[in-house]
Amino acid sequence: MAPEKIPNVAPAEDLACESPAQAASADPSGPDMTTSRRDFMKAGGMLSVSSLLGVGSLITMSEDANAAVEWAEHFQGNYRLMTQQEKAEARARLERRYSAEYGKRVVVDGTEAQEGVLMGYALNIRKCIGCRRCVKACVAENNQSRGPRPGESIEWIQVLRMERGGFAEEKMNHGYPEGLGIQVGGNAYTPAGQVLEGQYYYEPELVPEKDATYMPIACMQCEKPPCVKVCPVRTTYREPDGVVVIDYNWCIGCRMCMGACPYWARRLNVANPVLPKEEMNPVTHYLGNRPRMRGVVEKCHWCMQRSRQGRYPACVEVCPVGARKFGNLLDPESEVSLILARKNVFRLKAEMNTFPKFFYFYD
Amino acid sequence: MKRLVSKLLLLTVSCAGMINPGFAQDQAPATAPALEEVICFESRKGASEVTKIDLQPGWPNVKCSTKTGAVLWWGDPFDGTVPMGDMPLLPNVPGKVVVKPRSAKMNLLPMCGTACHNGVGPQFNPPTLPKDKKPKPIPTMEAMFPDAKNFQHGRGRIWCLDCHHTTQRSKFVDNFGDPISFDQPQLLCGKCHGDKLRDWRDGIHGKRIGEWASTGKKRWFVCTECHNPHNVQDGVRNKGFIQLEPETPPQLPRGMKDAKHELLHGVAH
User: Fold this and answer.
1) A197 in contact with chain B, both atoms CB, cutoff 8 A
2) Residue A65 lies in a domain
């Protein structure tokens, strides 16, 4: 962003004196008040020692990760139903907690949708070379967990590698299904675009490979999002500018949305997220990239902390082939609108009537 | 039309000057730590390198991939850019456009027009200028500039002087024989690839970083930041974009020993 928007990344010590409200808002009965909806869902044994130590460490601005979870945070309402005042308080609470936890000045933005904007995305499927820079840029921007152990590594974008299909003379007389002796017609075709699970994990020396095409997928920001329909606590919803968001604090980790999503876009923090201090991105949005906790679901939100400030999402900027395009669908001059007007576009699984605002196109 | 363009240009110049005085790329802050320099590449390896610096403490100009050395994230998308300048073919671009000057990345360019091809100089009088544009061996160039040995653009139908100006070697040449700046390769490429120029102008081909609004300020990547003009046919797929090293794959799910399992063991049809 323009330099004036670069946050003043101050060491946390300076912050301690800035937050007099803090000790006051911590309830002295803290240690007993740690049961939240989320804890309710957990098998138990997950209450961290530090949150039991709660109050003491709060006052001293302890380094400990969970120490500063104020009880007010445990009992806050659904973000969408909060008053402006409550929203601001919720963000300020988080700013204090994150700043202490990550040792730098963390901003939790709450900028709302801009009128006249409906965000849209287009990806040139012909250009994608499968280099996964979008995947990594997304992680660098959005504070995903990046630990080495199972479940500690979360990526929102997946890049599918698909074999190119083709017809072969040797297969002219192959029966189908094979081996049963029933000739149901020739099957000289080797399927194109078949996706096996392992095909996310390709690791050649160089991309693009000769006989492969690549298809990145992430949240499609559907106009009729099935995940929103199924959420029992209504913590995931569509914002007025079209982005489907999650209030992580209200999420109970039930995974209904993960089952409902036809695009495999949602991830559950099964483990305690691992996010090193020096890698943490201090510019966050409440409904966007603020650090998440164990037991909540997360997904792509088109870099809300950037896009609401006018900046392109991180994956758009990083794509070395320029396959990723982003803009306002209501503005006929925007890049996405021009693509919709001029190119051949399709939406993934259009037959599901989810009406994604993420379009694939090709020249 | 001309007047409109120059007004736009003036606007871009003055705005860029106002907002962004202190962030010229080569201006490392005095407080830069004595750590080892991190150099990574933006788009084309070997032709778009940047040095990582802190714009403010804890706020780098770029974040780079430890595996591939590629830039993954820009702290300031306009770092090191200048206004795109006069674009006779693109009169109505709504937003503010900045680019990174290509001439800053050229090693030979500062010498081309002075050391050898000075067009009118005493030791290279006009008679030594090429008589036509046809391909011919150029051993001196090949030694300095290996790409000339294996020139792969246009499948044998174009050669150096279709792009480079005969007498002004630090310039390209347009269809009328007039010079084009090295910082505006789009005007050169556009003379043969008009369809791509049009898509590039509308933000469909190529890429932009910065503000997404159509009226916002954006850095446009110019053609040669992605394409090597002397070798566009390279790469296994012959599509004009060179192959790259990919980033690491995602973590395998618990229990999956290797990514090939399904491929090797087959799935039921």
Assistant:
1) yes
2) no
A82 band by pLDDT with thresholds 50, 70 and 90: very high
Based on the fold, state whether residues A283 and A343 are members of the same structural domain.
Answer: yes
Any B CB within 8 A of A307 CB? yes
Which among A7, A317, A328 has CB closest to B209? A317
Q: What is the structure's pLDDT at A285?
A: 98
A297: helix, strand or coil: strand
Q: Tokens 């006051």 appear where? A: A24
Distance from CA of A338 to the nearest CA of B (A): 7
Do B206 and A322 lie within an 8 Å CB cutoff? yes
Same domain for A310 and A279, yes or no, is yes
DSSP H/E element including A107: strand A107-109
Distance CA B252, CA A263 (A): 19
What average pLDDT values come out for chain B (269 residues) when binned by 10 residues?
A: 37 35 38 70 92 90 94 95 75 80 87 69 56 82 85 89 89 93 93 94 94 94 94 68 90 77 58
* pLDDT(A64) > 60: no
CB contact under 8 A, A133 and B247: yes
Number of domains making up chain A: 2
Residues A241 and A302 in one domain: yes
Say yes or no for a CB contact (<8 Å) between B248 and A132: yes
What is the model's pTM? 0.84
Residues A230 and A333 in one domain: yes
Distance CA B207, CA B226 (A): 9
**Residue A356, in any domain of the structure:** yes
| Chain A residues touching B22 at Cβ < 8 A | 3
Which residue range is the domain that position A300 belongs to?
Answer: 119-157+218-362
Pairing of strands B217-220, B96-99: parallel
Residues A329, A246, single domain; the answer is yes
